[in-house]
Predict the structure.
Amino acid sequence: MAEPTVLATDPSPGVRLLTMNRPEKRNAFDHRLYCDLRDALRAARGDDDVHVVVLTGAGRGFSAGQDFAEMSAPPDGEPHGFPSFLDTLCEFDKPLLAAVNGAGSGLGLTMLLHCDVVYMAESARLRCPFVTLGVVPEAASSFLLPLVVGFQRAAEILYTAEWIDSARAVELGLARLRLPDAELLPATLARAAEIAAHPPRAVRHTKQLLLATRADAVRAARAREDAAFAERLGSPENVEAITAFFEKRAPDFSRTR
Amino acid sequence: MAEPTVLATDPSPGVRLLTMNRPEKRNAFDHRLYCDLRDALRAARGDDDVHVVVLTGAGRGFSAGQDFAEMSAPPDGEPHGFPSFLDTLCEFDKPLLAAVNGAGSGLGLTMLLHCDVVYMAESARLRCPFVTLGVVPEAASSFLLPLVVGFQRAAEILYTAEWIDSARAVELGLARLRLPDAELLPATLARAAEIAAHPPRAVRHTKQLLLATRADAVRAARAREDAAFAERLGSPENVEAITAFFEKRAPDFSRTR
Amino acid sequence: MAEPTVLATDPSPGVRLLTMNRPEKRNAFDHRLYCDLRDALRAARGDDDVHVVVLTGAGRGFSAGQDFAEMSAPPDGEPHGFPSFLDTLCEFDKPLLAAVNGAGSGLGLTMLLHCDVVYMAESARLRCPFVTLGVVPEAASSFLLPLVVGFQRAAEILYTAEWIDSARAVELGLARLRLPDAELLPATLARAAEIAAHPPRAVRHTKQLLLATRADAVRAARAREDAAFAERLGSPENVEAITAFFEKRAPDFSRTR
């Protein structure tokens, strides 16, 4: 039996901790991780004893985004886990906190745009490497990133693919707080426990109202992104970037997504 | 004859000052205050000699929001003042400044999201206590609060119901400036006078353009909030919170909304 | 043959520099500058060797906005250059950087809301003087200015027509960086070169996605602004402001728009 790709525990009443668990791949997403994290979120949503969810990563990284090195295809007839994972994330209607323990790249950054409160380890950093791979942003980030950090800063982040350290992430509003690495998870869990202590149905209803204000725009952005991504995939720029990647077999690949 | 719940004066040419005047209730809104402030705003809107309006509160508080202790019902056949007050506030098309002289809770915070310039006394503070009462945000704040302070910070403010002091309010963009308590009103009136000195029809047309960019979203958010509020009212969480309140008869009730 | 109103050069691979060239008018827009800058942007958009465009101004100013002093009308039958210039600017789908070398007033500020990255000389400053002229904002700024700087700060900028210095512009998010005057253009061109080095089709597709998230709102805002402007033009407030301007022949006119 393989190691589970998502670890679920309940560290305090009302709080569910989900840990992405592919540390040797810096928690890059293959088909199985998409499906397992999607299912873990669905289980948390359906469980009345879970009021708040905290996401983190095992090992040194938070998430390296899409795993190119191991393009594990779905079994015959099964749809890929990516779209249904995103649907579940976009519609998750209980407070979702993130403890960003290490590098987040691609989806490892854009998934944070769907979290309510993001705490970040001082050593962690974030990046949107889409253009360097000849592709485009995903997860509604073409809409949500400008909303969170402003149009100019979103444009710069997306056009340059530069790394964003934790101090800059807080300044930009991508994260709420940065903490010494050892204090990250305890602090995030403590915040989660505070929120979980409030009337859970009123909190959930409040989050539903917050999501409703942007649901249509998120849906429209994802549709545009999916169409653009399909057009970019296999384009000369994309083929060249992927070829260069595999030729180089860069040891830090999982950090550049 | 009862003391008026709204005091109206014209301290300088073109400037109308409206003071919420239930200081013993920290300017909590009962039916009468809703109606009187609505009527005062309508009168200011219809008066060509009024170019700018400044809102403040009498006594120690700005506004404690909905008054639970004195649920003064409308006379027979008269609709409650809350929705028509909000309509008037959302559509107010002359510059509206706020001098936040003390605590603003619930509507005492969310009404600021409809003001153009907010100045705040150093000792003042703000809070969204909705979840602690088992209910949800109102006054389009599920849309406007994320717009003003960002999604993550709005989520935290709404989920935790924490007090926001004046320094943090400025940092978040809820207020433009904080001032020593004694300088608050003079400074706000001076700013109002500067704006009132510009061509008033062009200024009013400018505000109409600013409101138009968000009018549909404000309307949609209010409709969703009203539906959610109706569902929450009388729910076990809400009944428990209200019961606890009246059993405790907390002396600082009006500050927790 | 007249001096060209727009100078175009390619200082490094993939980078096109466009310099507004009416220095004696502080690059105020007459019909010809609208048309020439529009055509230069269209040429840059259509040229596959151009990946990034940088806008700047010749002489001491960036742009004084609409030129009232020289209301050069289009030749018979030719439509005015303003709307088609704005169409081109709003839809420009390659990264557009601005090097704000001096004062930007009216359109000299609002055109920056359509740029991806704005660098500003320390001595430069910006202003929205619309209300002082009895008119209203343009170029979708009634939507984009609140989006960039927040509703309260946009209201204050538009109602008071105050000058914004470069430090405040960075604080507000109108500009990304301020630089010593002599370093402005080299720094902006260096940033442009960095962006131009990334796969250009992926970058362009990314910008198309960013523009798509706001295209409808930009179009709607422009329609409302155009209607409001038509109503304000020739109004008593507008006539009085323009008359005062020409009677005074203020030597610094081009800086007040």
